[in-house]
Design brief:
5% of the residues lie in helices and 38% in strands. By secondary structure, the chain is mostly beta strands. It is globular. 48% of the residues are buried.
Length: 476
């Protein structure tokens, strides 16, 4: 069965998230912000008291909450159902996104949650809820994709690389995290299918040529690339072979645990190209980068316990030859050791997790169920604040009666929710607080990463450091 993943590309929609609070009348921007353009030191709200003797500031008029929905190429998505709830999860108002992709609530101080529903009539449905919302919030989301996003047909001029270090006999043809391997390049073009589970942008392509020892000796690349969606075909002819590659070493310090896996991503034109290596006893890994190609590098190390719990530290930096990650106990995120679901009220399930997430900025909790009678799947993702206690919990809000088909039967008959939810929390120095997290979650930590257990592949939209902790069902 194909899975519908919740799709908010970590790079493609960065400008939408950071700039959409301007709430201009035009469609959302798809431009990537320059490094440093987002001022993460500026608080989104200030609850401090005014200085003694200073006049009270003018009262801020109540504001609505707005959800902005776009597709993978940045085009607005109309006619999606958006539900606004109070703090107890009761329905206050239901709207549809307009031609501009926006659904704006009435001004109501009671609004504390917002939910957007995708593909209610399809066999694969997605729901996203933001908790702890406030008036004035503008919440962006990229519509999920269930099928192939695009097919790239990639041609390398002249075919095989035969210059210094060649001839190559292994070719890795990549569009972000999606890849096709070829032993030779006699048969061109090479098709790379961009699928939701491996999507990491599609604004550039990269071909790595390796020798008989599988060491990369040259790259053929192209940026920018004008991509299409909805299964369309993109024909790309790369530039000539570029060599030699740049050496990049990712080193992990202040640890005796050599079980980690190191991840390295070249980021070019909003597209992240994914590679990974086992750390080993040297506590480092070597990678070959395309010289002059990347706008930035994103590196991380992940530690997994019992196949379910993962802890990740990482950073995005300008291109460099050495990236150092500090894996000392003080730098690792707190661990999540368990996650449970109470479906006694199947239309308002309760998700819980074990682990004090106080040091983190916010989280994403994800559950799903399969309706065998209609062969349809519903996945529900809930954006939550960090908990300052040994356990945390969130209750799904109520949905209007016309969305009953998305949920298990109220009397508990038939199938119900999977018993173990996905739970992930993130911390980053470019995300100052939860008020910011709920507005940027789709960029720095989309639900597609959480669902597929790829929490180590989170990518920041600008230079900075991040930590991720997660609990992921082994059967998912």
């Amino acid at each position: 069965m194909r899975r519908l993943v919740f799709f908010a590309g970590p790079l493609l929609t960065a400008a939408l998230v950071f700039a959409c609070e301007d709430d201009s009348a035009g469609p959302p921007s798809n431009d990537f912000p320059e490094a440093g353009a987002f001022d993460s030191s500026r608080p989104t709200s200030d609850s401090s008291l005014p200085d003694a003797g200073q006049p009270e500031p003018d009262a801020v008029a109540p504001q609505p909450v707005t959800v902005v929905a776009t597709g993978v190429t940045g085009a607005a998505v109309a006619n999606l159902t958006v539900v606004f709830h109070d703090a107890a999860g009761a329905v206050l108002e239901t709207k549809k996104t307009g031609a501009d992709g926006k659904a704006t609530s009435a001004v109501n101080p009671a609004i504390a949650m917002a939910t957007v529903v995708f593909d209610t009539g399809a066999s694969q449905r997605e729901i996203l809820t933001w908790t702890g919302v406030q008036g004035g919030d503008v919440l962006p989301v990229v519509a999920p994709v269930g099928n192939t996003i695009a097919e790239f047909q990639i041609t390398v001029p002249g075919g095989a690389f035969t210059d210094a270090g060649g001839p190559t006999s292994n070719y890795y043809v990549k569009v972000g995290g999606c890849e096709t391997y070829r032993g030779f390049l006699d048969d061109q073009p090479v098709s790379v299918y961009v699928e939701p589970y491996c999507f990491r942008g599609m604004g550039a392509v990269l071909v790595a040529g390796a020798n008989g020892a599988d060491t990369i000796v040259a790259h053929a690349l192209k940026k920018p690339v004008a991509a299409v969606a909805d299964g369309g075909v993109v024909s790309v002819t790369t530039d000539a072979w570029k060599f030699p590659p740049a050496d990049v070493t990712v080193s992990v310090t202040n640890t005796t645990d050599a079980s980690g896996r190191i991840w390295f991503q070249q980021i070019a034109n909003q597209t992240a190209f994914v590679e990974s290596r086992n750390m080993g006893q040297a506590f480092d890994a070597q990678f070959k980068a395309a010289a002059g190609f990347a706008d930035g590098y994103n590196a991380a190390v992940s530690y997994t316990s019992g196949f379910q719990a993962s802890r990740v530290i990482g950073k995005r930096v300008a291109p460099t030859g050495t990236i150092t990650l500090d894996a000392s106990p003080a730098q690792l995120p707190p661990a999540l050791t368990a996650a449970t679901l109470n479906a006694a009220a199947p239309r308002r399930p309760v998700m819980s997790w074990t682990g004090n997430m106080g040091p983190m900025k916010g989280g994403l909790v994800r559950i799903g169920w399969f309706d065998g009678s209609t062969e349809s799947t519903t996945r529900w993702s809930i954006v939550v604040p960090a908990n300052n206690a040994a356990t945390g919990t969130v209750t799904a809000p109520a949905l209007p009666a016309d969305l009953d088909a998305l949920l298990p039967l109220a009397d508990g008959g038939g199938s119900s929710w999977e018993t173990v939810p996905d739970v992930s929390f993130m911390d980053s120095d470019v995300v100052p607080d939860y008020a910011t997290w709920r507005k940027v979650q789709g960029v720095v930590f989309p639900a597609s990463i959480a669902q597929n257990g790829n929490v180590d592949q989170a990518v920041l939209p600008q230079n900075g450091a991040f930590r991720v902790t997660s609990f992921h069902p082994v059967f998912d």
